[in-house]
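Can you give me the bound-state structure? Components:
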Amino acid sequence: MTDNRNLFVALRAAFPQDLDGIAVETDSGLHYSWSDLERGTAMIANLLQSLGIEEGARIAVQVEKSVEAAMLYLATLRAGYVFLPLNTAYQKAEIEYFVGNAEPAVVVCTPGNFGWVSKIAFQAGTQHVFTLGDDRTGSLLERAAMQSDRQTPVAKGGDDLAAILYTSGTTGRSKGAMLTHGNLLSNAEVLKDYWGWKEGDVLIHALPIFHVHGLFVALHGALLNGSRILWFAKFDPKKVIERLPDATVFMGVPTLYVRMLAEPALTPQACRNMRLFISGSAPLLMETFSAWKERTGHTILERYGMSETIMLTSNPYFEAEGERRGGTVGFPLPGVSVRVRDDQGHDVPVGEIGNIQVKGPNVFKGYWRMPEKTKEEFTEDGWFKTGDVGRIDELRYVTIVGRSKDLIISGGYNVYPAEVEGYINELPGVAESALVGVPHPDFGEVGVAVVVPRPGAQLDAEQIIATLKGQLANFKIPKRCFVVEELPRNTMGKVQKNLLRDAHKALFA
Ligand code: MCA
Ligand code: AMP
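Here's the bound-state model for the whole set.
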């Protein structure tokens, strides 16, 4: 099966010879061998295949982080279906949209959410709803336990879909970015070399597994190197620091670094066996980059990615390729092309600011069932428009200086103001609203809502936040809300969000 481009086959081929060795060690003291991963994923894959669902079917999953949840992802690849991970913070309306839009054949949710999730799923035409708890409970594993632990991975071409990741748009609803086996495998292979993965590496995995960073970059990185994973169901700075001496690689969003820096136990001694600290998903402040170096002696490697493109640039690991520069996201990865263009579509001179565009085997296949949106996001000559604004200097370092898309990145999660404003505007007595991102010492950036009441209406800022809490994922809830008489507008009538940002920039200083 040499031309089987199924990502699972490549990951499986990298398992060590000794399948009885430990593959994953969890923070609750469980050990999983490579053989456990092999057999567990085979059983779940067999279960999925026994359902008689069609090729290309979506398996939507909203469960707490667990090794079994990771196995469900691998089993989906193995069985040739399309994995659709959903953040556990998503509430009813969000799940309704994703399930309605993706029309998954299978939905897997937590036992506690079965009531409302299954209702949504069955209404959307999904035939199979399973549960999976973070303590190895639920109908998925009960049913999988009856399956054979042998399974032949389904043959896939590089262009076949492996996953759909929903990413919100600046206008309208979320779009499902379709990633192929080829996208994921090529990116994982490039990163394996670029970050110098080697024998004996041990990864600390402390990120959620429903987004690119934890699910693909971290998980594929370790598996493709046959490396052991120290698995944290939830990030806890104290517990992670305790395990640093047993690890060599750590990946985190900037908030994780900020929280570890607040711990006195973070010392060079604790990091003595560490080879590499990687940061991404949000801008790493120079202040954090420098403080980390001073405290631990390690230079954080910052890289840049997107749901649509997985990783596109990275600071170098090997000194021969250059130094790791704080404040930059490094070089375009091997095989990935990055260019910067002005609004008219012309290349800008070296070092000047413009729109970042990307091309390469990492770039997704398009948005699920949205051909027009897909077309809009690509240039005529086939480059993907990232929506990020930046520059490339004469040494090829890429620096992100802002975003043309109206997006707030809070603790590594994306919050689209248009979506939150839409919910606020629906509340009784609200005329209009604006959500802006302001600096925050822990989350980097957080959303602040500015709301205008309808004539004669009385609005209570606290009440607005409380109401939103039942409707939207918790990280999208504005951290503060202000009721004002009107929003500042320019002569064209456009809301001047920069003025609101300025007015509230010191709120959390
Ligand atoms: C939690 N809260 C947040 C966030 N997380 N508020 C704003 N932004 C957040 N990110 C709030 C909750 O609403 C709650 O508020 C309170 O904090 C405590 O919630 P809890 O869940 O206990 O928080 P936590 O466990 O401390 O979580 C913080 C965290 C988490 C560990 C930083 O947000 C996290 O794991 N972030 C990583 C995200 C990630 O993996 N991103 C990668 C995306 P209240 O008490 O008021 O209810 S992939 C990507 O971006 C691209 C492709 C890339 O380049 O990687
Ligand atoms: P997502 O939609 O979750 O895939 O988020 C992708 C966005 O995260 C990118 O378009 C960037 O705006 C942002 N991002 C990712 N990595 C970095 C980084 N290292 N520095 C700044 N922004 C980043």
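A couple of observations. The first helix runs from residue 7 to 13. The chain has a mean pLDDT of 97.
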